[in-house]
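FAQ: What does a ligand-bound record look like?

Like this one, built around S-adenosylmethionine:
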Amino acid sequence: MTARPMTGASPPDDDQDAVGRRAASRAADDSGDAARTTHFGFRDVPESEKAARVHGVFTSVASRYDIMNDVMSAGVHRLWKDAMIDWLAPRPGQRLLDVAGGTGDVAFRFLARAPGSHATVLDLTQPMLEEGRRRAEAARLAGRLAWVTGDAMALPFADDSFDAYTIGFGIRNVTRIEDALSEARRVLRPGGRLMVLEFSRIPVPALQWAYDRYSFNVIPAMGQAIAGDRDSYQYLVESIRRFPDQEAFAGMIRAAGFDLVRFRNLTLGVAALHSGWKL
Ligand SMILES: C[S@@+](CC[C@H](N)C(=O)[O-])C[C@H]1O[C@@H](n2cnc3c(N)ncnc32)[C@H](O)[C@@H]1O
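The answer part, i.e. the structure of the complex:
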């Protein structure tokens, strides 16, 4: 695996967060159309602003991110991440790129399943990675991990570098999902696999309605009570509603050139796993 000089495993005393902010704005500039808009939750914003807003949300929630995940999902996010790694079925010695890897939940599970494997965790938000790095040191996994600040839409790695690419609850935050999928395919080796875990749609309208009531009424209030931050959690629930449903997202993965694209619903479709191969 080769990282372009722009970044690399981030030394703790570096201002790598500035790297993340620059990466985000460079990727936005590269769109060639500063006037294009996208959504940030339920609001429309210029594409060039979205990454900075997302960065602000995750900077704000980083120190409480793990505990909030457990509280909001009653621990179920752990089962979903286990299911992701079950389906991925890591093998010894494999190289994983975990994009939007945050505090490392997906990467840690991968390493635990595959002796001699290595994981690179890339994220836009340095404070999320710092939380992950602390956890890795406590779990004595630091030697098998690299932490890289960067943008899913412009990965700082050579073509064909990784055996597996994962992204857990990250892709809905990315400004141009098509660009992230195209980058995922580029950095995977032929025969490599993409695995996406994301919130999705419950195909039973009455259940989706009940789940929406929970999301919009309870989660921002919990965010306020536990993390002192209602707005970030309001964004999180809105961003879930804006993300394409299972079939539409599978179509985007196929359009990016992946083969054998499949999905599995988790907890009735509250979340879904999507898998695709670079053949
Ligand atoms: C909800 S957290 C998920 C963290 C972790 N994967 C997990 O499942 O617990 C979303 C993460 O996506 C990151 N993120 C958002 N947009 C990104 C982008 N364009 N490139 C890389 N990371 C991004 C955020 O900084 C945040 O850490």
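Follow-up question: can I read anything off the structure? Yes, for example: Residues 1-14 have pLDDT under 50 and may be disordered.
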